[in-house]
Amino acid sequence: MTDSVGIAEIRAAARRLEGAARVTPLLESDTLNVIAGRRVLVKAECLQRTGSFKFRGGWSALSALDPAARAKGVIAFSSGNHAQGVALAAKLHGAPAVIIMPSDAPQAKIAGARGYGAEIVLYDRRSEDRDALGATLAAERGLTPIKPFDEPMVIAGQGTCGLEIAAQTAAVGVAEADVVICCGGGGFTAGAALALEAAAPRLRVRPAEPAGFDDAARSLRSGRRERNDGVGSSICDAILTPQPGELTFPVMRRLCGPGLVVGDEEARCAMATAWKHLKIVAEPGGAVALASVLFRREEIEGDAVICTVSGGNVDPGVFAAALSDYGDAP
Amino acid sequence: MTDSVGIAEIRAAARRLEGAARVTPLLESDTLNVIAGRRVLVKAECLQRTGSFKFRGGWSALSALDPAARAKGVIAFSSGNHAQGVALAAKLHGAPAVIIMPSDAPQAKIAGARGYGAEIVLYDRRSEDRDALGATLAAERGLTPIKPFDEPMVIAGQGTCGLEIAAQTAAVGVAEADVVICCGGGGFTAGAALALEAAAPRLRVRPAEPAGFDDAARSLRSGRRERNDGVGSSICDAILTPQPGELTFPVMRRLCGPGLVVGDEEARCAMATAWKHLKIVAEPGGAVALASVLFRREEIEGDAVICTVSGGNVDPGVFAAALSDYGDAP
C-alpha cells in the first residue's frame, strides 16, 4: 500500500468499488427542509452494505492488498462498523478476517461482524491491552492490519462517498454548501474533503462530533492534534476516538471548515427525525451531522446543507428509547 | 382524464414525474438474503416524497388535470398515504386540496397531510357518510375528486415505479422473478403489472395482503371481484380496502400471479427486519410484501425476488412496539 492519499487514489478506489459498494441515495424531505430552515440533502450511508460507510474503506483496503497477503488474512480493531465493513469485504474476497472488538460493543455490531464470517476476539477495554493482543495475533498468523482511519487505502475508500456527493449534489442544483460529516478519527472526513476539493471545490467539509469527543473541532481551532480527556462518555459509540489521525488531520486542517459539536440528546432527537422524515435508521454516532443541521443552524451558512447519516447499526432498545423520547417532536 | 390506462399512459406519467418524484433505490442486504434463502431486492418506496409511493399517483393526477380544474382544487378520501401524496402534489402545483380522513387515522398521517398545506376534514367512520360529505364539498367548491386507486392517472403514476423496478432489476442481473407488491385497492399492483408487462415481461407481479383483507388473493383465485367481510381488523391501515377496483382488477387478473397473505404479527416482524437489515422504516401495510418474502418462502419460486416497501408513515409507538417484540429476531 502507498503512504499517501489524494484524488488519484480515491478515483482508483471508486473503480475498485464499482459493483461491490452501493451508490447510496441523496435523500431530501420537504418537511425536514421546513424544520431545518434550509434545504437539507442527506447522504444515506446507513443504506451502504453492512449498514455504514465503513464498507467502502474495508473493500478499498482489501481490494488493494497484494493477493498473497490477502490470502493470509487481515486483522482489524473496531467497536463495530469498521469491523463489519472489513468482515464483509474480506468474506467477499475469500480472505480470513480477525476482528478485535471490545466486549461492551453494541450487540448488533458484534453479531453483524460474526454474521459476515469473521473470527471475533472480544477483549475487556479496562483490563486488556488491545494493541498487544492484536500484535500477537497478527505475528502468529501473518495477518495484515487494516486500521480504521489512518490508512491511505481506507481514506481513499471513504473518499468515494465524496465523489458521489459531488455528482448527486450537482444533479439537484446545489453547487456551494457545507457538507457535514460524522467524524471519529477523520477517515471519512479527510477522504470526503479530498474528493470534494477535486470534484466540487465549493462544497466544504465540516466535521460533526459529540460533546466531550470534539477533538477534531478543537484541533481545527488550535491547528494541532488535540486529545480528548477520556473522562466523559457518549452514546455515539461509532465515533469516540481519542484524537484525529496522523494522516487525516493534515488533510482536515487544510480543507475543512470549523467543527460542529452536539450533545447526546440532540443526536438522539436527530435519530427520531431521520426515522420520521427520511424513513431511514441512524445510529447515534451516525446522527451527529443531522443533529448539527437541526441544532446548530446559526453556525451553518447558505441556503442548502449536505449532511451524512453515516451508519444505522444500533441496538433495538436504544432506538426504541429515542423514538419514545423524541418520536413526537416535529 | 382518460378512462383507460396502459403503458403509454405510464410512460407519459414518468415524463411528468421526472424531477418531481424521486427514483427510489433498490436495496439489498447480504444478511437478509441469507435469512430469506434467496436474493431479495427491495424497492424502498418509503423513501419516496411523502414517505410512500402514493406521491407518484398524486403527482400524476394533478399534473394531468386541466389547468382550470386544477386551479379550483382537488378532493381526496384517504386514511393517510394517498392524502399526503395528493396534498403535497397539490401544494407544489399551487392547487387547493381538501382531504377527508377518518378521525382514527394514524396521527402521523393526519399531521403529514396537514403539514403539506391541505385542508383536512375529519369524519367518524362509524356515524358519518364519507361519500355524501365529499360529494357536498366537491359540488360546493368545484373540486375534482382524485380517487385513490380506480383512477387511470393514479394507476399510471404508481406504474412508474414498475418502470424503475424493470431498469434497476436488470442492472443487478435479475431478469426473471416474482415482484411482490403491497396491495390495497390495486392501483400500485395494476400499475406495476402494466409497466412490467411492457418493460420486463419475465417479472411477474403478485399482490401481498394482510389476513382478513385478502380480497385480491381471493379474487385472483375465483376470477371475479370478491369483497372482504369487513368483520376483522388489522394493523395494516394503509391497505384495508373492501375489494379490488373496477379498473384495477381486470389488469390484475390478466397479469398477476397468485396473491400472498400474511398475519399482522408477520408484518410487525418484517418491520423490525427492514429496520435491522435494510435500515429503512416500513409501516405495517408497507411491510406485508417483505413479510411474504420472509414467511411464505415456499409459495415463491426462483433464486431472487423483488418486493416493495411501499410506505413508512407510522406512529412512533407502533414502531417501537414492533422493535420491542421483534428487534432481537434474526
From TrEMBL, chains A, B:
UniProt entry tagged with the keyword Magnesium: yes
GO BP of this protein: D-serine biosynthetic process
Entry cofactors: Mn(2+); Ca(2+); Mg(2+); pyridoxal 5'-phosphate
Record-linked InterPro entries: Ser/Thr_deHydtase_PyrdxlP-BS, TrpB-like_PALP, TrpB-like_PALP_sf
Domain Tryptophan synthase beta chain-like PALP: 20-310
Keywords on record: Lyase, Magnesium, Pyridoxal phosphate
Pfam families: PALP
N-terminal signal peptide: none
This protein's record includes keyword Coiled coil: no
Entry GO MF terms: ATP binding; L-serine ammonia-lyase activity; magnesium ion binding; pyridoxal phosphate binding; serine racemase activity; threonine racemase activity
Family: Belongs to the serine/threonine dehydratase family.
Protein name as it appears in the record: Threonine/serine dehydratase
